[in-house]
Amino acid sequence: MIGYSPQKTDDYVAVSVEATPGYVVGFEPMAHADRVHHMLLYGCTMPASDQGFWRGMETCGWGGGSYILYAWARNAPNLVLPKDVAFSVGHEQDGIKYFVLQVHYAQPFAGEVHDFSGVTMHISQRKPMNLAAVMLFVSGTPIPPQLPAFQNNITCMFSSSTPIHPFAFRTHTHAMGRLVSAFFKHDGHWTKIGKRNPQWPQLFEAIPSKLTIGKGDQMSASCRFDSMDKNRTVNMGAMGVDEMCNFYMMFHYDAKMENPYPQGAICSQDHPNLMKDYPADGFELLPTRPELEHHAHQSKIPFGIVQEAIHEKLGGIKLGQVAGLAFNNQKQLLVFHRAERVWDANTFDNYNILLDKTPIKDPVILVVSFNGNQTRLDKKLGAGKFQLPHGIYVDKDDFVYTTDVGSHTVSKWKIEGEELKNIWTSGESMLPGPDQKHYCKPTGITRIGDQLYVTDGYCNSRVVVLDLNGKFVQQFGLPGEETGQFNLPHDIVSDSQGRILVTDRENGRVQHMTTQGHVIEEFKSTMFNNIYSAASHEDYVFMVPGRPIMGHESEGIAVFVGRSGAGLIEYAFGPATRGKREQMGPQFGQPHCLRVSPDGDQIFVGDIAEGKARLWQFKVQREENMSSMTSSISLGWPSLTQTDAKYNSFFVLLAFAILVLGAYCVRRRCRNLENGGTLFDKRGFKPLRTEETVGFISDGSESD
């Protein structure tokens, strides 16, 4: 079993990996507030458990150092440290031999969902001039009820001879928190370190001015709470019913000087007399920012993707192999199935010529409306027009495009009443080929702008670009395993930014590409070795294998979900009884196509398993009108200075896998840091080099 599914309310888990010696220059979270309450990344001399994964709140073991490296909550973004500043890890002198990631799940998921949240650390081998550390200000004072404003205060004196320079801060409370601030006092003068509304994304915010805290200075923090809706005292604690008062101060010090906090930096004392002249600005609320509060919102409803229905018939029509799915502009679903025809070992000869050339007599395009798990068949089309349906797409002008692997053609259609009118057909019917006028078992099609992109899949392993009249424009891709090459491109969709996602089936990956065929990133994992279909909604990429990994059949097949721009898997879901025997509940047989509804609320999977052709329907459970996070929202926080572009970084992913840490880490293409581009600009990938090879890829599965 891989991935974690929380078992209870306020479920804490931790995972540890041995620290790689180097210097951490950036952190990239992979999580969402719908699923995860918060994550804390520690550097430890020893982890609390030698099991690699454990449940509970423990992080670092006794008898060694415990150092906070990074914290995340409420959809905070990436963090890039300033130039020549980094966390030292994995060295004898820094005391950090292990990374421990603690994840707090507020509530169990709904449905069969497994989470792979984590943090990617960007590590350099170049020692910086300044070393970074984090000080945690934390209060344990309970909060009385029925008060519009209650302050928790924390104060410590700085006693080290090594000056420190705060450069970023983060605030954290639960729902009652309204403001967290911190100041330091030098020679009787207070200077602000930072203040922020903890209901906003809980990022590390850059401190705009250079600060220096020296020996004898007073450091103080304060949390403001609103307890008017409470009828009891609320204690400080780790559970959702408790509260927290945390201020994280990230600072750096001269790497040539002694570490001011060799055992970790924490301040938890309350000295009321020292807070009497704390600046009034530290108590005053910030102006409201509804867009930030919306972005940071944590759902009160458990996140989940719930199996809503399994359809074997639509409008009384028994489904054949469900080969393709598409939504039209009226939010109806077009189901492209094969009726009584089945693709098996006897369908084609050795030259990819279809043996039974008679068209399918029954309607193969079913136009369906959905209301929850109730369906209405609105139209049935395409009788006598197709040999072996595969891919279908509807453009913004309501033209329908199809691929037929039996006739080796791509067609454009218009629905007129109850008829399907052909506009044009590209390719020579019944004659496969590799040139500009032929296809060989084309699989998928999508439109971007005024061009169509066709995956010419089973034989040619290429993407063919057509104009809207079906004329050849260009092609890209060759058979092979390298970047930009394909081993049976099986599906193609576009994302919200006008780029394409090609399902590279037998290479077991989804290649995210520009419209010129340059690879931006790829989604690939040892959790699957084939991918049949993919879909895109907002920042997320949904992908489904058609077969389980050999030897892991009992685990069942899942849909995997990754974040665009990260190339990593965030979570997975499947049938309500995934991994159990068919007698205990239906399982995915051979998923072939996957699409997400335009509003993102429903996910449909077409299954072509012999004798068990089905349309699976899942519902995304979330609060009404709450959409998932998108990277395009303008959050208005300052950006930290980018790291030195000469750093030769690599990635460490702390993803969850029970007792098999590291074995299931997903692969990500390392971005070239030598080009001087921003380290974490997810729109700024450079094209990866494409190797040219010559070869022929045959059908990877006789059943499809």
Automatic annotation (TrEMBL):
Its main location: secreted. The chain crosses the membrane at residues 647-666. Cu(2+) 1 binds at residues 37-38, 104, 172, 174. One of its GO terms (molecular function) is copper ion binding. Binds 2 Cu(2+) ions per subunit. GO terms for biological process: peptide metabolic process. Cu(2+) 2 binds at residue 244. Gene3D superfamilies: 2.60.120.230, Copper type II, ascorbate-dependent monooxygenase, N-terminal domain, TolB, C-terminal domain. One of its GO terms (cellular component) is membrane. Residues 132-260 form the Copper type II ascorbate-dependent monooxygenase C-terminal domain. Keywords: Copper, Disulfide bond, Glycoprotein, Lyase, Membrane, Metal-binding, Monooxygenase, Multifunctional enzyme, Oxidoreductase, Repeat, Secreted, Signal, Transmembrane, Transmembrane helix, Zinc. PROSITE patterns: CU2_MONOOXYGENASE_2 (PS00085), NHL (PS51125). Disulfide bonds join 156-267, 223-245. Pfam families: Cu2_monoox_C, Cu2_monooxygen, NHL. Residues 20-108 form the Copper type II ascorbate-dependent monooxygenase N-terminal domain. It catalyses: a [peptide]-C-terminal (2S)-2-hydroxyglycine = a [peptide]-C-terminal amide + glyoxylate; a [peptide]-C-terminal glycine + 2 L-ascorbate + O2 = a [peptide]-C-terminal (2S)-2-hydroxyglycine + 2 monodehydro-L-ascorbate radical + H2O. Its cofactor is Cu(2+); Zn(2+). It is found in: Secreted. NHL repeats lie at residues 473-516. SUPFAM superfamilies: NHL repeat, PHM/PNGase F. In the N-terminal section; belongs to the copper type II ascorbate-dependent monooxygenase family. In the C-terminal section; belongs to the peptidyl-alpha-hydroxyglycine alpha-amidating lyase family. PANTHER family: PEPTIDYL-GLYCINE ALPHA-AMIDATING MONOOXYGENASE. This is Peptidylglycine monooxygenase.
